[in-house]
Amino acid sequence: MTLLAVERIKLFSTRSPWWCMLLALGLTLGLTAIIAANWDNAPMPVIGAVFTHTFGLYVIMVMAALAVTTEYRFGTIKSTFQAAPDRTSPMVAKAVVVVLLSALVGLAASFGSWGLSWVLASDNSQLALTSANDWRHVAGVGLIYGAGALLALGIGALVRQTAGAVSIILVFALVLENVVGLIPNIGDDIQNWMPFLVAQKFILGDPDASAIPDGAGPPAIGELSPWGSFAYFAAIALAIYVISLVVVKRRDA
After folding, report:
1. pLDDT at 221 over 80
2. Which spans are transmembrane here (predicted)?
3. Per residue, what are the HEC states of 200-225?
4. Lowest-pLDDT range, 85-94, 133-142, 150-159, 225-234?
């Protein structure tokens, strides 16, 4: 419990997490408000209310990476490892704090977006959360934010430099996953297993057919079921994080 309290204090004693959380919420809610206010050609479905969740996800992953790279930048990680020589326990405590906070931000962003859509959409008859799929679309954002934060924390611990960690996260998610589909013959097959695209299947995939107009809705994503997609994304995040624990324990601080 002491390590959890220490990591919580370290996280909230700097301004960057606050700015990242505000930016994640502002981007997600602001863009959703614009979409909902201009959605007038059909009833707005639940997936329309959470379509912008990825913008907040990338910001939250930057926050998670900063939680560890900032310590390496200013040398405070050395004091942390002197107080806890096993090195694993403070990193696990940091992960617990960052993942829980990220999940809460994700829930605030998703339910806030859903609430704004309910108020602003001209036709909100399809926005009621009446099925398991509807709840997955909205509440699942918190799970994706948490898993994404764990992935970013692992990358940050491996790279140790803020610019490098942030570049890897954003270039991979925003550029590489889209460009890989252009590879002749095998590009589409590879793209179906890209982690961030698979994560979108968990949030947006398999919507209730009655809640969207004919021919509308997101394109088919990946080859896994929605919950299988989340398990795949979470497994990659956990694997990267475990590798980072092994590397942190073996190399000099």
Report:
1. no
2. 18-39, 45-70, 91-117, 137-159, 166-187, 230-248
3. HHHHHCCCCHHHCCCCCCCCCCCCCC
4. 85-94
Q: Could you tell me how far CA 248 lies from the centroid of its own chain?
A: 23
Q: Find how far residue 81's CA is from the centre of its chain.
A: 28
C-beta of residue 197 within 8 angstroms of C-beta of residue 191: yes
For residue 204, what are its two tokens?
């947006």
Q: Would you say 80 and 165 are in contact if contact means Cβ atoms under 8 Å apart?
A: no
How many Å apart are CA 176 and CA 195, to the nearest integer?
A: 11
Q: Structural domain tally of the chain? A: 1
Between the CA of residue 16 and those of 24, 65, 67, 221, what are the distances in Å?
A: 12, 11, 9, 33
Residue pair 47/218 in contact (Cβ under 8 Å)? The answer is yes
Task: Select the highest-mean-pLDDT range: 80-94, 194-208, 235-249.
Answer: 235-249
Domain that holds residue 31: 2-208+216-250
Would you state the pLDDT for residue 13?
A: 84
Are residues 201 and 226 in contact, defined by beta-carbon separation less than 8 angstroms? Answer: yes
Return the SS3 of 45. Answer: coil
pLDDT in tens, 81-91: 887 778 889 89
In the block, tokens 């930048």 appear at: 73
d(CA 91, CA 49): 35
Contacts of 92 (CB under 8 A, 6+ apart): 245
Other Cβ atoms closer than 10 A to 83: 12
